[in-house]
Amino acid sequence: MSEFCEVALPVPLDRTFTYAVRPDASPAQHPVRGSRVIAPFRNEKLIGIVLSVGAKPADADYEIRPLEAVLDQDDGPLLSEDLLVLAEWIASYYLAPIGEVLRGMLPLVAEVRRTVYYRITDLGRDILAKLSDGDPAFERSAQKKLPRPRIGTKETDSAELQRRVLDKLSSGEPVKVSTLRTATAASQSVLAAMLRKKWIARETSAVERDARRMERVAVLIPETRLPSLTQKQQAILAELAACGGEIHLAALRAKGLPPSTLQTLVRRGLVKIEERPRAFRLGGIESSGGPIRLNEPQTEALAAIASSLGAFHAFLLFGVTGSGKTAVYLAAMQRALDRGQSAILLVPEIGLTPQMAGLMDAAFGEKVALLHSALTPEERSEQWRRIRSGDAPIIVGTRSAIFAPAPNLGLILVDEEHDQSYKQEETPRYNARDVAVVRARNAGAVVVLGSATPSLETWQNSAAGKYTRIEMKERVNHRPLPQVELIDMRNEFKETGAEQLFSRALIEQTQAAIDRGEQAIILLNRRGYSFAALCRACGTKLECQNCAIALTHHKPPSEDGLAREGQRLECHYCGYRRTVPPRCPKCDSEHLYYLGAGSQQGEERLSEIFPSARIGRMDRDTVRGRHDLERLLARLHSGEINLLVGTQMIAKGHDIHGVTLVGVVGCDHSLSMPDFRAAERVFQLMTQVSGRAGRGELPGRVVVQTYYPDHYAIVAASTHDYYAFVQKEEKYRRWMHYPPFGVLANVLVQSEKLEEAAGWSSILGKYFVQNQSNGAVRMLGPCTAPVARIKGVYRFHLILKAASRKALNAALRGMLANADTAGVPRRGVTVDVDAQRLM
After folding, report:
1. Is residue 839 part of a domain?
2. Which of 4, 160, 173, 431 has the fewest CB atoms below 10 angstroms from its CB?
3. For residues 159 and 137, what is the distance between their CA atoms, to the nearest angstrom?
4. Is residue 544 part of a domain?
């Protein structure tokens, strides 16, 4: 009997797909649970994961297609049983398609080469015949809906482009997209338009490839007798001898030694060229100082964690900023390593990885692997393989690192566990903090959630005894927490008679810190130059053409900051950009006005106020990759930058001993947002950024500008009193049945057509009204989402609250089943369980 298997594919469907194993497959080519396979799906070739193998399903009255290939035949199943079980839990808990969950677990796209082909359809052949006849009326109709040529490019007749494409495909054989574009000069947008018209069809192929990063090395061949050599040849041999007999070709080129001379030495048999897998280099910011000595609270925390290794135990490590939680993490990882176990450390932002990588490199060397989104596909594949083989038992990374295939996992650490960056904002919408607890429970490992400002969910779990709470109430070496001064910006306006970005007190204290040779950080938690641009004459706000959101004003770098040329308006949701118009597009008025200030304007103002300061900026515009971040942080640590302005990227985890002053500007605007977590986020952000001050020998000071100086979150943050904040916040959450005193899900309904999105949300809303009359689940909505349109897609949402997670899960499953029956497509409904953002 032929063998069949159930395969999870990365498509938005809540099901698996049955495939047959080829009859001529050898025993080594038969898949097992956890294997990667290449499977045909429509005209695509997709990478799937086998979930089960067995006989043909009894209800399969359709033709079952065979698998294209089974990958990783020599390595066995790539996903271990514990990761498969974890994936099935995520799919069940977050109501996510299992195939999309498994895709997120395997960052191995570099190991499969995908090629796109196009072929002509029967309709395309008819069109080609009509175009060849030269019918002018048909040519005019054929050009409809084709994209216009871009400004500054040579305009080519659209009908002629189409004719070229169809003529190239007329043989009936699929043609690779790169070959097709080169031969016809057709752009990708032209091909996409023809695809929508069904004149051509798209196909893909997928084949396994070697994704190892290779490097070429020149190796000296020992010789007893050397022939006569030129000066450059002697220089190359001298470099090889000085480097132990081998050197990378890139290093030779950097020294100005010509490749042609090297090739001459190769021909003469004095040197050989070898290609080897590139050696792993951790990088990061070099750690200073010797071995870390733990104080008494740190030692007690370590003892509690280390004594629990070998069995599941969950801890909350609650320590004030600067109390030395990172040192406890490193020591605990060493204890796990001593037991022959692996350890995973999660950090919330990629911005923290260079500093953490430096600490890890100093502590564990080549035993460390990095996993985060800034790595290239080849680097991610390399790191994943090192972890799976056991060569790197210490793993550090952002949220996806929780899926690292660590053998004999003994310890999981989640730094800054409260951070909303751990919540994935696309399917599967998992929270890495909660997944870490589940994975630790399944693996019999210890999980430590660390924070100076724990989320209320984690705090409540520790209060209920689910987690063991470890408290570290003092900073290392008994350094005092920074003093916090609140500046009421309402009084600042009354006294100065103008709206000020920076208060007089902040300017004065920043100047004093710079004069003393110290460093200062100013948090301005908005990107760009201004929040929005509007017309003073008609009130029109310049919005994104794809999203229902105001465009953010950005300026190019310039000496005076006043030149209009090069300025742009940008959408931070979809990336749409346009130049700043000289006049209002609606009323033609020249009076455009810019509202608010972002980090770019903050940098410009600070340059004017402090001309002698060495200013740096850290936000998504200046930090586009890990190398940008490493360079910026290295300049900050060395003291080259003494005044840093930026968004919340600067608030988390950075340990710069020269910083004695922190300014907080505009962090309280979130309090006016329609979000029940607004106060918690403001408290956390203020506390975290305040913790950057006074981490060295000198005391720190914080200046907070606010329009709400009496708000309980701001008052509690100014006194470093987490307990007072929790007591007040829990009261409101309990009254309103919000987490952690209830469970919540956000159901997002989306369509490119407004009528469809509204109709589908109405269907879901009626289902809840008719089926949840017992009050177990309460529905808010349906209504337009706060951001009503993103990337051309209209958005409605329903918020569901329940006292029981079981009741909420059952209601959501019933809703999805009803949506399927009512013809609402699964791709149009997104379920966000335990939603962090209600946007």
Report:
1. no
2. 173
3. 11
4. no
The mean pLDDT value for 226-244 works out to 82
- pLDDT score, position 149: 41
Written as six digits, the tokens of 231 are 């000066």
From 238, 236, 223, select the one nearest 270 (Cα to Cα).
Answer: 223
For the stretch 82-132, pLDDT in tens is 999 999 999 999 999 999 999 989 887 777 888 889 999 999 998 888 877
Contact 795, 757 (CB under 8 A): yes
C-alpha pair distances (Å), 110 with each of 210, 281, 375: 8, 19, 12
Residue among 423, 425, 426, 343 at smallest CA distance from 387: 343
Res. 152: pLDDT tops 50? no
Q: Could you tell me what percent of the chain has a pLDDT over 90?
A: 53
Residue 150: per-residue pLDDT = 40
Tokens read off for 145: 């809906």
Crossing angle, helix 678-690 and helix 722-736, to 10 degrees?
170
**Cβ atoms within 10 Å, residue 713:** 25
Both 227 and 371 in one domain: the answer is no
Check residue 789 and report its DSSP letter: E
Q: How many domains does the chain have?
A: 6
Order of strands across the sheet that contains 271-277: 246-248, 214-220, 271-277
Is the CB of residue 458 less than 8 Å from the CB of residue 467? yes
pLDDT at 159: 74
Instruction: Give the C-alpha separation, 749 to 758, whole Å.
Output: 8
Q: Give yes or no for a contact between 94 and 430, defined as CB atoms under 8 angstroms apart.
A: yes
Q: Measured on CA atoms in the order 764, 766, 771, 772, is the torsion positive or negative?
A: positive
Token code pair at residue 307: 């004594």
pLDDT higher than threshold 50 for residue 151: no
Interatomic CA distance for residues 415 and 527, integer angstroms: 25
* Residue 277: count of CB within 10 angstroms of its CB: 11
Structure-token match 């913790």, residue found: 691
CATH code of the domain containing 356? 3.40.50.300
Indicate whether 543 belongs to any domain.
no
User: Looking at residue 42, what is its pLDDT?
Assistant: 86
* Together in a domain, 488 and 474: no
Of 643-652, 680-689, 756-765, least confident by mean pLDDT is 643-652
Q: From CA 119, how far away is CA 171, in angstroms rounded?
A: 9
Residues 721 and 790 in one domain: no
**Confidence band for 250, pLDDT divided at 50, 70 and 90:** confident
- The CATH number of residue 759's host domain is 3.30.70.600
Looking at the structure, tell me whether residues 83 and 128 fall in a common domain: no
Domain boundary among 193, 208, 223: 208
Mean pLDDT rounded to a whole number for the chain:
87
700, 693 contact by CB (below 8 A): yes
pLDDT at 26 (0 to 100): 74
Helices and strands, number each (H, E), in the chain: 25, 33
Strand 568-570 to strand 777-790: parallel, antiparallel, or no bridges (unpaired)?
Answer: unpaired
What is the bridge-based pairing of β-strands 409-415 and 342-346?
parallel
Note whether 401 and 346 are within 8 A (CB): yes
Q: In what order do the strands lie in the sheet containing 743-751?
A: 777-790, 793-802, 743-751, 829-833
- Is 224 strand, coil or helix? coil
Confidence class for position 678, pLDDT limits 50, 70, 90: very high
Q: Are strands 659-665 and 519-524 parallel, antiparallel or unpaired?
A: parallel
Same domain assignment for residues 515 and 490: yes
Per-range mean pLDDT, top range of 41-50, 200-209, 402-411, 661-670: 402-411
680 and 786 housed in the same domain: no
Range of the domain at 220: 214-277
* Confidence class for position 360, pLDDT limits 50, 70, 90: confident
Instruction: List the 17-20 sheet strands across, edge first.
Output: 17-20, 4-8, 44-54, 36-41, 69-70
Residue 578 lies in a domain: no
91 phi/psi in degrees, rounded to 5? -60, -40
Strand 468-472: give its sheet, edge to edge: 368-371, 394-397, 342-346, 409-415, 446-451, 313-319, 468-472
